[in-house]
Write a structure and sequence with these properties.
By secondary structure, the chain is mostly helical. Helix content is 69%, strand content 0%.
Length: 134
């Protein structure tokens, strides 16, 4: 039993999986397509796709709805801690080097998302400055 918890933790752990990965895994475990989830949430299909691709993040109220619809805790969706889903049972475990590479990709992706937010903030500030100068 303890071993399966370790496998589950390594699969969806915050160091390896993103919010989008956990969202996709929970949606699939619930037997929902992206279209069905979008319809139940009242959002567009492209919105759910962007969440799962980590191109956007759901707002707080949507996160709460997602957790309820997918039968996982809000904390698990965000941080990989709390009540979530078990890791899928597939072939042999990944080699340690692959897990490390996935963790590095996840870290880099989070960094890129952070940089994109910073760029958007500076761009917004620049627009405000230009509007005031006109």
């Amino acid at each position: 039993m303890a071993e399966s918890g370790t496998i589950g933790k390594s699969w969806y752990d915050a160091e390896v999986a993103t919010l989008g990965d956990r969202l996709q895994g929970a949606r699939e475990a619930a037997g929902l397509s992206q279209e069905e989830l979008a319809q139940r949430l009242g959002v567009r299909l492209t919105t759910v796709q962007a969440w799962e691709d980590d191109m956007a993040e759901p707002r707080g109220n949507r996160l709460q709805m997602l957790a309820g619809l997918l039968n996982v805790s809000l904390g698990w969706l965000i941080t990989a801690e709390g009540e979530g889903i078990e890791a899928p049972v597939e072939g042999p475990a990944l080699p340690a080097a692959a897990v490390e590479a996935l963790a590095e990709l996840s870290r880099l992706q989070a960094h890129v998302v952070g940089l994109a937010r910073e760029i958007a903030a500076v761009e917004k500030r620049m627009r405000q400055i230009l509007r005031q100068g006109v």
